[in-house]
Inverse folding.
């Protein structure tokens, strides 16, 4: 089973930036819409941003204008550049296919904590 590998999280102050990276070892990567999701404590996982095979992007209203998703198919990697971080962005961030496919599991995620 394929498991994405997320990295780049950390503890940052409000207003600062972070760049998340996710690698996926799958020949299907370049043929899939890829998304970033996040799950805050005691909340359901939510879709944050997505990017199609043609690099069309979409964002949750809560992050629109602050986050930018991009991909590098040559590296099987997707990125999430996050600006102007807020405490409510605190969550574990995951990447996966959108929609999910059966042989792609969930990675460990990367923790983002925004706090002063």
């Amino acid at each position: 089973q394929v498991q994405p590998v997320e990295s780049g999280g950390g503890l940052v102050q409000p207003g600062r930036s972070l760049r998340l990276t996710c690698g996926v070892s799958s020949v299907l990567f370049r043929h899939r819409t890829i998304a970033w999701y996040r799950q805050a404590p005691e909340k359901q996982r939510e879709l944050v941003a997505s990017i199609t095979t043609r690099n069309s992007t979409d964002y949750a209203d809560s992050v629109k204008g602050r986050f930018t998703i991009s991909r590098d198919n040559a590296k099987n990697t997707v990125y999430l550049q996050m600006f102007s971080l807020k405490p409510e962005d605190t969550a574990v961030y995951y990447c996966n296919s959108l929609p999910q496919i059966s042989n792609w599991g969930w990675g460990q995620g990367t923790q983002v904590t925004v706090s002063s």
Remarks:
- The longest strand covers residues 91-97.
- The radius of gyration is 13 Å.
- Strands lie at 5-7, 10-12, 18-23, 34-39, 46-51, 57-59, 67-72, 77-82, 91-97, 110-114.
